[in-house]
Write a structure and sequence with these properties.
Length: about 750
C-alpha cells in the first residue's frame, strides 16, 4: 500500500500518520482488533477498537481499489492503448466509480449498436458530426450509403453515426461524474403499487404512491421499497427530472453553435440518456443507496446486538428454567451453577390440563432438591400465565422469578451445537436449557446462536450478508474479549470468538481440557495442539483461570507483563497477592518509574486498574424485573395505562418495547423523550427497563402505540401532525417494518 493511502486514512480518521502505519503493520502481522486496542496502546497511540477497525476496513478497501487498478492497467496495456496520460489518470483515481469510468471505453463489450455501426464503416462520419462544425450533412451521409454493408440510405448512415456518438457520450468521464452527482442530489425515489396487487401488497400501503428525495431517504424506507419491488408488489424508480439530466448532458457535450451537426449530436444525447446513461446511473445510484442503507441497518443491528450480549448476567446460580406452553405443557429443567443439566420434567399448570396442584408440588420439590436460587420463564406462549402460577405457589422469597427473552431458542435447540451438547435430549429440553443459561450469562449462551436469529435487527435478511456477518462477528468478538472468558468452563462456541483462536483452536482447547482436566495456569495453554506463540500472544490476556496458582492468571494482565508486575511488588517489599488486595500498597507504586520503550503510562495504568479489580466483569449488575400484574394480553390494555417494559429492539424510527402481552409496542422516535432527538440510541438501549404509556391499541392489526414522554397526551393533535411530517413511516414503522424486521425471528 502506497504512502498516499496511509495519508488518506490518517486524514479521514483524523489521526496521525504513524498511528495508521503502525496499526496496519500490526494487523498485517496477524494481530486482532481487540488485542491491538487493549495491549498495544503504546504502538497505536491509544487508539480504541472503533478506530483500529476503521483503519483495517479502509485499508482493505484501498487495497481492493489497487487490485482493480492493476487489473485495468494490465487489460488496457494488453490492448496496446495505454498512453502516459491515461495511465496517470488511472493511477490518480481515488474511487472505484472513477476507475470504472476511465476503463469503460476499453472494457470488452458485447456487440452494441455502436460496434455494429463501426463494422459498417460509419465511425469517420460519427467523428465528423461529433466535431459539430457546419457541414452538408446529406452530402456527407450519402458517401456511406452501401447496400453491401447494410447501409441502404443516408438516414441509416446518420442513425449509425448517432449510435456511435451516443456510446462516446456515455463513456465521457466528466459527464458521468456530473450525472452521478445529479442522480444522487436531485434524484427522487418514486414508488407505485403494481396494478391489481393492492390487496396482496397491503403491508406496503404507504408506498403505493410515494416519492421522496434520494439523498434524504432513510435506510429503513429504502430497504422497505426495495423489498416491495423484489416481491413484485411495487414499481420503483430513482431518477432526477429528465429535462435536468438532458440539459446537463447538452451543457457538457454540445458546442455553442447552431447547425445540422449539433442537432445530430443533440439527438444522440437524448438517445444516450434513455438507452445507456440513465439505466447505468440508476443502477449505480440504487447500488449506492442500497450500500448506504445496508451500512445504516448493519450499524443498528450491531449496536443492538452489543447491548443484548452485554446484558447483566445473574451469575453462577442454581437455576430452574421453564419453557411455557398450553396444550403441550411447560418443559422444566434444573441447571447447576455452571449451567450443567441436573434434571428435566414437564408440568401442566395451564389450560387445557390445568393440573395446578401436581405442577406446584413438582416445582416446590425441584426447588428444594436442587437448591434453586432463580426461576427463568421464557417470554413466549403462556409465559404470563405460567409466571403468575409460579409466583402464587408459595416459594421462598429468596427465589427470584423472572422472564427471559427466548428469541432464537428454537434455533439453538435444533442446531448442531445443541445436539452436540445434549445428544440424548429432545428439542424442548434443549430450548429450556438455553432459556436458563441466558439468565445466568447472556453472552456465553447467545454466541451459540446465529446472530440474525436473535431478533434485534432491521431488515437483516435484505442487507449485504457478507458485510452483516463481518460486522456482527466484530461485535461478538469485541464483547467476548471485553468481558473475558473462563477457559475451564467456556463452550467451544464462546472460545471461538477469543482473540487469536477461532473454531479449530477452540475445539482443541476443549478436547485438551476433557482429556487432561482443567487448565492450572495460562502457560499450560501452550500445550494445546496447534496453539503456537502467535495465537497465545493474541489470546492469553482474554482468557481467565479462576483459582490459579498465579493470581494474575485470573486477571486481564497479559502474561508478557507478569515480570513487570512482580517487579513492582518486589520494589515495595510486598507479595503479589498483597499488592492485588491492598490499595495502600498499590498507592506506593510510582508508575513513571516503570516506563520503558515498550511500556508506557497507558499500559501501566491499565495494569493498576486491573490489579484493583482482577478479572472484573464490565457488565452491569443483575436487576429483577416484573411486568404489570393483570396485564397479560392485548385485550387487557387501555389507552393511558402506564406500564413497565423492556426495550427489545431499536430502529432508526423508534424502539420496540415488550410490555408482557406477547406483542411488542412501538415507541416512535417522536415519543421517546420530551425533547427532540435524532437517534433512538440517544435515550434507550436494548434490554433497558422503561416506563411507557399506552397511546394506541389495535387488536385486529396487532398494533400497540407507546410513549415515553412525561405527558404524552399534551397537544396530541399537534403532535400527530408534526409526527406525520417528520416521518411518514409512522404507520409503516409499527406494522410493515416490524413484520419485515422480524420475518426471520423464531421462538
Amino acid at each position: 500500500m502506497n504512502i498516499d493511502h496511509y495519508l488518506k486514512i490518517a486524514e479521514e480518521l483524523n489521526i496521525k500518520l504513524k498511528q495508521v502505519t503502525d496499526t496496519i503493520a500490526l494487523l498485517d502481522e496477524g494481530a486482532t482488533v481487540p488485542f491491538i486496542s487493549r495491549y498495544r496502546k503504546e504502538v497505536t497511540g491509544s487508539l480504541d477498537e472503533v478506530q483500529v477497525a476503521g483503519i483495517r476496513d479502509r485499508a482493505l478497501q484501498l487495497r481492493e481499489l489497487d487490485k482493480r487498478r492493476d487489473a485495468i492497467l494490465k487489460s488496457i496495456k494488453e490492448q496496446g492503448k495505454l498512453s502516459d496520460e491515461l495511465e496517470k489518470k488511472i493511477n490518480g483515481a481515488e474511487t472505484m466509480s472513477v476507475l470504472e469510468d476511465l476503463y469503460l471505453p476499453y472494457k470488452p463489450k458485447r456487440r452494441t449498436k455502436a460496434t455494429i455501426a463501426k463494422e459498417k464503416g460509419l465511425e469517420p462520419l460519427a467523428t465528423l458530426i461529433f466535431e459539430q462544425t457546419s457541414i452538408n450533412l446529406e452530402t456527407e451521409a450519402e458517401k456511406y450509403v452501401d447496400e453491401s454493408k447494410e447501409v441502404p440510405s443516408s438516414e441509416e448512415a446518420l442513425q449509425g453515426a448517432r449510435d456511435i456518438i451516443a456510446e462516446w457520450v456515455n463513456e465521457n468521464v466528466e459527464l458521468r461524474k456530473k450525472m452521478r452527482d445529479l442522480f444522487i442530489n436531485e434524484g427522487t425515489f418514486v414508488s407505485k403499487v403494481l396494478p391489481g396487487k393492492e390487496a396482496e401488497a397491503i403491508k406496503y400501503k404507504d408506498y403505493f404512491d410515494w416519492s421522496e428525495p434520494v439523498k434524504t431517504a432513510p435506510s429503513h424506507r429504502v430497504l422497505a421499497m426495495r423489498r416491495g419491488e423484489k416481491e413484485l408488489f411495487l414499481m420503483l424508480d430513482s431518477c432526477p427530472e429528465e429535462l435536468s439530466a438532458i440539459a446537463l448532458m447538452e451543457n457538457v457535450i454540445l458546442e455553442d453553435a447552431a447547425n445540422t451537426s449539433v442537432e445530430q449530436v443533440r439527438m444522440a444525447i437524448k438517445d444516450c440518456y434513455k438507452r445507456l446513461l440513465k439505466p447505468s446511473m440508476e443502477t449505480e445510484v440504487r447500488l449506492f443507496t442500497k450500500k448506504k442503507a445496508d451500512e445504516d441497518a448493519i450499524k443498528v443491528f450491531a449496536e443492538n446486538l452489543r447491548q443484548l450480549l452485554l446484558a447483566a448476567p445473574l451469575g453462577e446460580k442454581s437455576v430452574m428454567a421453564i419453557d411455557p406452553g398450553f396444550r403441550t405443557g411447560c418443559k422444566t429443567v434444573c441447571l447447576g451453577p455452571q449451567g450443567q443439566l441436573l434434571s428435566f420434567d414437564a408440568i401442566y399448570p395451564n389450560e387445557p390440563q390445568k393440573r395446578t396442584a401436581e405442577s406446584a408440588a413438582t416445582i416446590r420439590h425441584l426447588v428444594e432438591k436442587h437448591q434453586i436460587q432463580a426461576i427463568a420463564i421464557g417470554n413466549g406462549t403462556a409465559s404470563r400465565e405460567t409466571e403468575a402460577f409460579v409466583k402464587a405457589i408459595g416459594l421462598p422469597k429468596s427465589v427470584i422469578v423472572t422472564m427471559v427473552n427466548e428469541s432464537g431458542a428454537s434455533i439453538y435447540s435444533a442446531s448442531d451445537v445443541a445436539r452436540e451438547e445434549f445428544p440424548d435430549q429432545d428439542l424442548t429440553v434443549r430450548g429450556a436449557v438455553s432459556i436458563g443459561r441466558r439468565l445466568m450469562d447472556p453472552l456465553a449462551e447467545l454466541v451459540k446462536i446465529d446472530a440474525k436469529s436473535i431478533g434485534v435487527g432491521q431488515y437483516q435478511h435484505d442487507v449485504d450478508q457478507s458485510a452483516l456477518k463481518n460486522s456482527l462477528d466484530d461485535t461478538v468478538m469485541s464483547c467476548v474479549n471485553g468481558v473475558g472468558v473462563e477457559i475451564n468452563t467456556a463452550s467451544k462456541q464462546l472460545l471461538t470468538y477469543v482473540s487469536g483462536l477461532g473454531p479449530v483452536l477452540a475445539q482443541n482447547i476443549v478436547a485438551y481440557r476433557t482429556e487432561n482436566g482443567p487448565f492450572k495456569s495460562r502457560s499450560e495453554i501452550k500445550k494445546v495442539p496447534r496453539l503456537g506463540d502467535k495465537a497465545y500472544e493474541q489470546a492469553a490476556g482474554f482468557l481467565r483461570i479462576r483459582n490459579a496458582k498465579n493470581p494474575l492468571d485470573s486477571s486481564a494482565v497479559h502474561p508478557e507483563r507478569y515480570e513487570l508486575v512482580e517487579k513492582m511488588a518486589k520494589d515495595i517489599g510486598a507479595k503479589l497477592t498483597d499488592l492485588m488486595s491492598s490499595e495502600e500498597l498499590r498507592s506506593k507504586i510510582i508508575l513513571k518509574n516503570y516506563v520503558s520503550e515498550t511500556v508506557g503510562l497507558p499500559t501501566l495504568q491499565d495494569i493498576m486498574d486491573e490489579l484493583s479489580k482482577p478479572g472484573r466483569d464490565p457488565r452491569e449488575g443483575f436487576e429483577l424485573f416484573s411486568f404489570q400484574e393483570g396485564v397479560n394480553e392485548m385485550k387487557d390494555l387501555k389507552v393511558g395505562m402506564k406500564l413497565p417494559g423492556i426495550v427489545t429492539n431499536i430502529t432508526k424510527f423508534g424502539a420496540f418495547v415488550d410490555i408482557g402481552v406477547h406483542q411488542d409496542g412501538l415507541v416512535h422516535l417522536s415519543h421517546l423523550a420530551d425533547k427532540f432527538i435524532n437517534d433512538p440510541n440517544e435515550v434507550v438501549t436494548v434490554n433497558q427497563k422503561v416506563e411507557v404509556t399506552v397511546m394506541e391499541v389495535d387488536i385486529q392489526r396487532k398494533r400497540i402505540g407507546l410513549s415515553m414522554k412525561s405527558d404524552p397526551f399534551a397537544e396530541r393533535g399537534k403532535s400527530k401532525s408534526k409526527e406525520k411530517k417528520e416521518d411518514p413511516q409512522v404507520a409503516e414503522g409499527d406494522l410493515a417494518a416490524k413484520l419485515a424486521m422480524l420475518k426471520g425471528k423464531f421462538r
